[in-house]
Input
Amino acid sequence: MWEYSDKVREHFFNPRNSGPLEEANGIGDVGSIQCGDALRLMLKVEPETEIILDAHFQTFGCGSAIASSSALTEMVKGMTLDEALKVSNQNIADFLDGLPPEKMHCSVMGREALQAAIANYRGEEWSDDHEEGALICKCFAIDAVMIEDVVKANNLNTVEQVTFYTKAGGGCAACHEGIEEILAKVMLERAGPGEVSPPPACPATPEAPRPPSAKLTLVQKIKKIEEVLDSVRPMLQRDHGDVELADVQGKKIYVHLKGACSGCMMEAATLGGIQQKMIEALGELVQVLPSSYMPAEA
Amino acid sequence: MEPIYLDNNATTRCDPAVVEAMLPFFTEHFGNASSIHAFGSEVGKALKKARSQVQALLGAEHDSEIIFTSCGTESDSTAILSALKAQPERNTVITTNVEHPAILTLCEWLEKEGYIVHKLKVDKKGRIDIDEYKSLLHDRVAIVSVMWANNETGTIFPVEQMAELASAKGIMFHTDAVQAVGKIPIDLKSTKIDMLSLSGHKLHAPKGIGVLYLRRGCRFRPLLRGGHQERGRRAGTENSASIVGLGVACELAMQHMEIENTTVRRLRDKLEAGLLSQITHCFPTGNVANRLPNTSNIAFEYIEGEGILMLLNKVGIAGSSGSACTSGSLEPSHVMRAMGIPYTAAHGTIRFSLSVYNTEAEIDRVIAEVPPIVAQLRKLSPYWSDKGPVANPQEAFAPTYA
Output
């Protein structure tokens, strides 16, 4: 069974604001009955100020879906619509003191219900960008189409890279075999028949890098490090996060993870991906660590 | 208040007599059964006794037909992979689409490896079509593997008849009987079943012990190769304490078979009738006319199973659900989908599975506790208005797929 936080359990056992809301003027219905999670969010918005005066929900779903719905209604009451649109799924999960990785999609559903209800109030058409492929990563709800597209677009070769780019495989790891199958398929297409050599089944420790012909000066090194960070930044920003160099101490590179990246449960995977790129760019073994690991000044 | 355990198809508690019989095999009888000295021979004798106890419960002709394994899943994999290895000219497996993942996941992998897998469909009550089955029996079929009873609904399959039909065409027949053994009488020597899987922890023996029954004369290839244990058919030092425990559990199951089919059946029927009479828009799933005596699976429409289980757990009642959320998948139980149960009901299925340890008082309490829980969750459901489902539920609430 899942380990739910006390707050999730409390919101499930005593849901706030459940049931229909007669005076609702913005309604969002999202979810999938197939997946067993669906939510109707009802907002009562004051037209002059666009402040959410009241919010109710009805949910067909599991304990964390009901708790996420309940949390969402509590969070958005009193917000303006523009403020409410800034509520992320991570905000909902944080409000509940976290959700198990397999249940993060419940908070995603909450955020989408909010967007749908606001669109409904404003008379806009809301549609989500959901792909229709076979579900591969159940923890982060990433499907085969998405993984294949990303593998092709970025010339990815390993499961670690796929996790870095899409989050897929970053939770329980049960889908790694499925990701490997997609990688094998794309790599075969990429190489044409008879030319493909499968990636090593056992991740080798990064091969001893060839010593660069001339040792990099500290300035050259930092420049390269910044280049790597610039290359990953767009991906992090897409998830409302960012990264910044904090310090370089010998083989240790300390970075600040910012925005949604800070405290994200994918932090380790993110840093691992950056580290891989650093090793390739610098031609030497380095460690990428969060700035919180920096030794205190003596 | 004492908790009530109604999840015996998931696992059972070890019978105290089983535990007591096992304990000496962790201490004074620690020897390796293969050793020539006294430490070993004591264990050897105990294994022999356990083997005959399992043989008796299964009605096997020879005790050498009993192979101890680590679990039901190992027995299933061993059986199917053996049949394919031993008959390289045959490339097809016949099974059903309501098997346990121990079979289905293996079969999916076999398909990727190039084998052909036919999965028999089931009707609304979870029954297979015997004519469809007959039409699939041909000389490229290596093995038929059909569960004796379904773990979610308790529906019993006509495996004895199906084994006869397979045998007539010279095809091996395996049955995953982990739910059936100990609950309904089994007499393998009077059937044409070649292989059978059982799992200790489903019948009050510990986890980590299973059996593969292998009919004498059936061609076999081991899964684990190594030492000579189990006559070379399953290498690895015997799990002697658990084997002894399983032997005792099998003997107890023989003694309890009558109670299982009278008292337990009556309590199950009382529970089901008590819930169906108090709660609207719910129905039992599977073939209620022919199912295990301990299992009741009820679909509560318009609500989701995990919520029901959490509220049941809060009042000390343990059951299980076929909803997507409880399994960590995003699809409800494949068994419910195979029977064509709509999503709004499939996600709300709750399985109550009893054992001989359940009492009348417990069942009375469950009958009293469940209705308010269902009502509480329906109040939150977008498909439910005051007293019943909203008109045209599927149209009234048709969310955007997110």
Notes: Chain B touches chain A through 32 residues (CB under 8 Å). Residues 240-278 of chain B form the longest helix (39 residues). The radius of gyration of chain B is 22 Å.
